[in-house]
Amino acid sequence: MACFVVPGAEAVVVTAAYFVAKKREQKLELLKLDNTARYETAEPRITWSKRLGWLLALLWGGVLLLAFEHFWHGEVVPFPPFLTAMSSPEDTAEMLAEMGSVGVSMAVTVTAVWGLICAVAEAKVRKLRTALKKNAA
Q1: Could you identify which of 25, 31, 52, 136 might form a hypothetical disulfide with 18, taking C-beta atoms 3.0 to 4.6 angstroms apart as the criterion?
Q2: Is 48 in contact with 21 (CB distance < 8 Å)?
């Protein structure tokens, strides 16, 4: 009924974190450019905004797909109360229980998959750094 709301809320929070991380990284990059007296070779790395961008793609993609699916089945309507489960107290209780079980488990699963993706990517970058250091020596 409304299981997509929980990952949607997570997606909103992660979107805010993404923009904060992006702005911080841009400031750090400007500081590096201002300090041109010291030229340092950049090491390969994956920025936090890039990682959060991956999580955003996973979360928003799932939320939009599930919202469309619920709309298709008539569980979400374009007029108030928007969620048909909110029309009666019994349905609302069932909807909240579904959000607590299915919605939370979906959000946790997507975040765990993202964590695995980040771990694999970091391992590959670490391997690349090692190879570059061997070639430089």
Answers
A1: 52
A2: yes
CB 75 within 8 A of CB 84: yes
Residue range(s) defining the domain that contains residue 27:
5-136
Judge whether residue 41 has pLDDT over 70: no
CB 128 within 8 A of CB 44: yes
Tens digits of residue pLDDT in 103-119:
999 999 999 999 999 99
- Count the Cβ atoms, other than its own, within 10 Å of residue 76: 19
Name the domain count of the chain: 1
SS3 43: coil
Distance CA 106, CA 93 (A): 19
pLDDT tens, residue by residue, 46-82: 999 999 999 999 999 999 999 999 999 988 888 888 8
Q: Would you put residue 40 in left (φ > 0), alpha (ψ -120 to 50) or beta? A: beta
Contact 40, 49 (CB under 8 A): no
